[in-house]
Amino acid sequence: MPDQASPTIDTILFDFASAAFAKVVDTLGLRGRQVGEPTPFQNDQKALVGYIHAIYDLLFSTTGAEATRKILGELLQTTEAKYQDAPVYFEFLRVLPIPILGSDQVSLLSRKTLEVELALKTKEAEQAQVLLKQKEELEKSNQQLVQKEQELAVANQELEKEKEEISAEKNKLAVILGGITDGVIGLDLSRRVLTFNTAAEKMTGLHAADVIGKPIEQVFRVFDQLDELKPVEYCPLRTDGFEGVVFSQQALRLMSSNGKEVFVNMTNGQIKESTRVNLGCICTIHDVTQERQLEEMKLDFVSMAAHELRTPLTSIRGYLSVFMQENKDKFSTDQTMFLNRIEISTQQLMALIENLLNVSKIERGVFKVDIAPMDWVPFVRQTVEDTKNRAKERGLSLEFVEPLQKMPSVAADKLRIGEVINNLLSNAVAYTQSGGRIRVWVEVIGEEVVTYVQDTGEGIPAGAIPHLFTKFFRVSGKLEQGSKGTGLGLYISKKIVDMHKGKIVAESEVGRGSTFSVYLPIAKESDEKKQENIQ
Amino acid sequence: MNKTILLVEDDMFVRELYLRVLAQTGYAIVAAVDGEDGIQKAQQVKPDLVLLDIMMPKVNGLDVLLALKAKGETKHIPVVLLTNLGHAETIQDAFAAGAQGYLMKVRISPYEIIDTVEKFIKDPTYKMDIKQMEMD
User: Fold this and answer.
1) Is the Cα dihedral A169, A172, A178, A183 positive or negative?
2) Which residue, A370, A393, A534, B25, has most beta carbons within 10 Å?
3) Residue A477: which pLDDT band, with cuts at 50, 70 and 90?
4) What is the least distance, in Å, from the CA of B85 to any CA of chain A?
5) What is the pLDDT, as a whole number, of residue A5?
6) Of A319, A361, A414, which is closest to B17 when you measure between CB atoms?
7) Whether the Cβ atoms of residue A368 and residue A349 lie closer than 8 Å to each other
8) Helix (H) or strand (E) holding A453
């Protein structure tokens, strides 16, 4: 017996078919037997349905529609009573010949069909729901994708911006490198030149374009005194991730491939990322050629400046002197005058340089006098003698008045005091009219020897006398005759005399002339001894 | 035997001027254009007198002087400083190292160099007194 709890449609069909066969045989007798006894067709629902329809057809053709419906309807009542609770019962009803179904069965059948349709619809709806949900999810992920795309676009923009910034940074670095006054040379890991800045070009006399990519030893050679330093020594390429200065040395001689030599301080560094960025070594070279010359001589600025001013003046004076000597017979009067004026001017320029140098020394307190006893009269006599030609040229008489008594030695620096006497004589010559007279004499007053330089010149206005010995003070007058003084001579003279513990005095009367007096201390025994000690 | 003078001067104008004037002496004049050249030429020609500038590129005059005085073959050649440097200490150092004369170029006429040259050719042991010289 089929399981009551869950009869299959086959069970129900077989049951019904068996009952229908029995009924047909009962009703039609032998004739009914011709349809044959039903067999339990395993899983062949179609065969069973066909069998049932065959019985119906037989009954219909023999007993008519009404009887057939009645016979099979009664059978159906029995089957229904037995199986109506089975879930598949309505499936069974569906395959039966419709005329045998009663109104109850029809309504059940249509209800069940509706239910199935409804279930189907529900399922479809559910599926639609799922699809909708999937669609929503797709849309959502699509939105997410769009958002991601936008984010990527933003990120891309930022990257572009960063790229621009990096490019700007790179340019900035290039400009900075170019602007550095020290030579900066980047070497790669095989010590080939990567970068070569403007200062490096200037120092070596080489062009970056010609040296980039070349091994450094082909660009310049480095010497410490006479020993050559090899790249492996000054650019050691440490591999331990070291960052900092790997080499530093002063006063190295750099010899460029073009033969140019320069003295440099070299400082070479390395960065941690060296191997990753193929940057072996960063060489910084500082030109010390000039500094080295100064350093070696321990020269001060003023000495340097004086030297630099004298250099072109040497050429001017030298060539002028040789030119005048070699062509002296060929000049017209005008030409001779012009050349003389050039010569006088160069002399003045030279005097100005020397005077400025002296002023600078006085003001820095390094102007020194080396005082020793000196025989004064012969010195003054000689100095006057040396000026006589100039006085004569200007139509002046110049005379040293010999003292009547023996004069003591003075304590003085011969060179410096000579400048003072020369300066007074030059002024007298410059400011005295042709036909005038200059007299020089000496006398002892107390502990001092006084030297007078007197002229019959224009004289100095009383108001100007207090300013005579100040820096750059000049009395303007028609007698200067274009010979421009520096306004420093008397200033320096007074300083020199002061350093001798002496004094210098000016007396003058406009139209009658001027007298300058220089007071110098008489040399003492101790001065003599001091001098001996020095010797 | 003709005498040889070595002029070590880096300034071309001054060098050519002095060469022209010194030619009047009748001595052989050899010129060097810087200190390094000066040392080399001194060793080559073994001059009878060296006229030496001080402020020069590569090797300055003081170092040239030291190099000449350090070698037996050039040790006895008199050296006259012919310079515009007036720095007293430098000049004193040079005299201590064996320089025998000092002329400041800007203060003298080129013809005055001839007098000095003759003085040293006549007496190679002559020594100028630096006490008599004006320095910066």
Assistant:
1) negative
2) B25
3) low
4) 5
5) 61
6) A319
7) no
8) strand A448-455
What is the C-alpha to C-alpha distance for residues A25 and A55, in angstroms, rounded to an integer? 10
Coil, strand or helix at B125 = coil
pLDDT digit string, tens, across residues B46-77: 999 999 999 887 788 999 999 999 999 999 99
User: Cα(A530)–Cα(A532) distance, rounded to whole angstroms?
Assistant: 5
Record the tokens describing residue A2, joined without a space: 């089929």
**CA-CA distance, A117 to A108, in Å (whole number)?**
14
Percent of chain B past pLDDT 90, that is, above it, reads 81
Match 């009367």 to its residue by tokens: A509
CA–CA distance, B2 with A277 (Å, rounded to integer) = 67
Does the structure show a pLDDT above 90 at A366? no
Q: Which residue out of A256, A298, A303 would a mutagenesis test of the B interface target, given it has the greatest number of B Cβ atoms within 10 Å? A: A303
pLDDT single digits (tens) A262-299: 889 999 988 777 777 778 888 999 988 766 665 566 66
What DSSP assignment string belongs to A283-335? EEEEE-HHHHHHHHHT--HHHHHHHHHHHHHHHHHHHHHHHHHHTTTT--HHH
Q: What pLDDT, on the 0 to 100 scale, is given for residue A40?
A: 67
Provide the shortest C-alpha distance from residue A490 to chain B (in Å): 19
pTM over 0.90: no
Rounded to 5 degrees, what angle do the CA atoms A197, A199, A200 make? 65
| Residue of chain A whose alpha carbon sits nearest to that of B91 | A297
Q: Higher model confidence: residue B135 or residue A148?
A: A148
Q: Measured between alpha carbons, how far is A322 from B22 in angstroms, rounded to an integer? A: 11
Separation CA B68–CA B62 (nearest Å): 10
- Which of B:22-41 have CB within 8 Å of A? none
Asked if residue A312 has pLDDT above 80, the reply is: yes
Angle between helices A301-326 and B12-22 (to 10 degrees): 40
DSSP string, B13-33: HHHHHHHHHHGGG-SEEEEES
Rounded CA-CA distance A169/B120 in Å is: 67
Q: Residue A489 in 3-state DSSP?
A: helix
For B29, half-sphere exposure in the C-beta direction (CA atoms, 13 angstrom radius) is 19
How many Å apart are CA A217 and CA A256, to the nearest integer?
A: 9
Kindly report, residue by residue over B89-105, the tens digit of the pLDDT. 889 999 999 999 999 99
Q: Considering just the CA atoms, what is the radius of gyration of chain B in Å?
A: 13
